[in-house]
């Protein structure tokens, strides 16, 4: 997959949800994870993060929104239900991005929303679990920026495509140049 991404939470109060987000981030090969003003009880986080993600990717803990920082050039994407949020299926993911989810029974703080480059929502009838929302966003990023075959027109997976047989020799442009110079191959 091109680029890199990180994912984090603000004000999360359920360490099991944080563990699930970290485990999923690890599975989707996130470059980093973070929390802002979150409950981080390691034994409880590890109860759901069975991959022990913080042994494989950096996890930054920030006490306040003001302390929070991202790598240079990384765009912050808030995942939140707002009137002007972009529907996830219509969103083009930046190559370098960090996604942030709000607390389970709250929204992203106005201070953090103001720092976001984009606010994106998952178009569902009602809110889904925080860890599920994180997984949906990471999956959408993977299928959008990954190198996968286009979806077939018919139902089912891609048909085996017959590869063109490799031709040996000089590239055509080089053959033409040599021919123009009077040096046939």
UniProtKB/TrEMBL annotation:
<dbReference type="InterPro" id="IPR029028">
    <property type="entry name" value="Alpha/beta_knot_MTases"/>
</dbReference>
<keyword id="KW-0489">Methyltransferase</keyword>
<feature type="domain" description="tRNA/rRNA methyltransferase SpoU type">
    <location>
        <begin position="8"/>
        <end position="139"/>
    </location>
</feature>
<protein>
    <submittedName>
        <fullName>RNA methyltransferase</fullName>
    </submittedName>
</protein>
<keyword id="KW-0808">Transferase</keyword>
<dbReference type="Pfam" id="PF00588">
    <property type="entry name" value="SpoU_methylase"/>
</dbReference>
<dbReference type="InterPro" id="IPR029026">
    <property type="entry name" value="tRNA_m1G_MTases_N"/>
</dbReference>
<dbReference type="InterPro" id="IPR001537">
    <property type="entry name" value="SpoU_MeTrfase"/>
</dbReference>
<dbReference type="GO" id="GO:0032259">
    <property type="term" value="P:methylation"/>
</dbReference>
<dbReference type="InterPro" id="IPR051259">
    <property type="entry name" value="rRNA_Methyltransferase"/>
</dbReference>
<dbReference type="GO" id="GO:0008168">
    <property type="term" value="F:methyltransferase activity"/>
</dbReference>
């Amino acid at each position: 997959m091109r680029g890199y991404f990180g994912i984090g939470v603000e004000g999360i109060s359920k360490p099991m949800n944080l563990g699930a987000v970290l485990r999923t981030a690890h599975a989707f090969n996130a470059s980093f994870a973070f929390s802002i003003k979150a409950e981080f009880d390691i034994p409880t986080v590890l109860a759901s993060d069975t991959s022990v993600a913080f042994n494989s990717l950096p996890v930054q803990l920030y006490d306040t929104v003001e302390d929070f920082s991202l790598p240079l050039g990384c765009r912050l994407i808030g995942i939140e239900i707002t009137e002007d949020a972009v529907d996830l299926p219509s969103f083009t993911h930046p190559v370098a991005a960090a996604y942030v989810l709000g607390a389970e029974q709250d929204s992203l703080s106005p201070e953090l929303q103001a720092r976001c480059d984009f606010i994106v929502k998952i178009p569902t009838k009602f809110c889904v679990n925080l860890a599920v929302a994180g997984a949906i966003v990471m999956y959408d990023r993977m299928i959008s920026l990954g190198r996968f075959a286009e979806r077939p027109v018919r139902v089912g997976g891609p048909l085996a495509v017959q590869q063109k047989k490799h031709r040996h020799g000089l590239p055509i442009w080089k053959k033409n140049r040599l021919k123009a110079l009077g040096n046939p191959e």
